[in-house]
């Protein structure tokens, strides 16, 4: 069993209202020194078998078709560890 | 300028309906070999200064009080790179 992480973030050119709201709330809450925040999604995918190239290819296809909206989001796939 | 990543995931003992829905949809969509999926949040925090211990302490406080609900969620803080 292996764990693969898929991170999905809005593309840099897409406005991120959630991240922006957090960044703007920080000074009000006493935090300084943060110039920007972006919020995205993290998926932990547990594989039944090893994280070999075939399995990672499947996870990439999964990210492409199901986990990310590639019109507005980028994703990265990596084996945890 | 440094980028710090905060990952927020539901604690292992908390049921994750979103992740479960994804895991159950996968076979229907032609994907096999996945035993479980958990969905969480990823925050990219851009610091104005370097990611030294003081700054990381601030980000941890931020995660604790604002980004994660520590009753049901765990978080990890790490410098990207």
Automatic annotation (TrEMBL), chains A, B:
Catalysed reactions listed for this entry: N(2)-formyl-N(1)-(5-phospho-beta-D-ribosyl)glycinamide + L-glutamine + ATP + H2O = 2-formamido-N(1)-(5-O-phospho-beta-D-ribosyl)acetamidine + L-glutamate + ADP + phosphate + H(+)
Pathway listed: Purine metabolism; IMP biosynthesis via de novo pathway; 5-amino-1-(5-phospho-D-ribosyl)imidazole from N(2)-formyl-N(1)-(5-phospho-D-ribosyl)glycinamide: step 1/2
CC terms in the record's Gene Ontology section: cytoplasm
Keywords: ATP-binding, Cytoplasm, Ligase, Nucleotide-binding, Purine biosynthesis
Pfam families the UniProt entry points to: PurS
GO biological process: 'de novo' IMP biosynthetic process
SUPFAM superfamilies xref list: PurS-like
Subcellular location: Cytoplasm
UniProt enzyme class: ligase
Molecular function GO terms recorded: ATP binding; phosphoribosylformylglycinamidine synthase activity
Its EC number(s): 6.3.5.3
Its biological purpose: Part of the phosphoribosylformylglycinamidine synthase complex involved in the purines biosynthetic pathway. Catalyzes the ATP-dependent conversion of formylglycinamide ribonucleotide (FGAR) and glutamine to yield formylglycinamidine ribonucleotide (FGAM) and glutamate. The FGAM synthase complex is composed of three subunits. PurQ produces an ammonia molecule by converting glutamine to glutamate. PurL transfers the ammonia molecule to FGAR to form FGAM in an ATP-dependent manner.
Subunit structure: Part of the FGAM synthase complex composed of 1 PurL, 1 PurQ and 2 PurS subunits.
Family: Belongs to the PurS family.
NCBIfam families on file: phosphoribosylformylglycinamidine synthase subunit PurS, PRK05974.1
Protein name stated in the entry: Phosphoribosylformylglycinamidine synthase subunit PurS
Organism: Nonomuraea jiangxiensis
Gene: purS
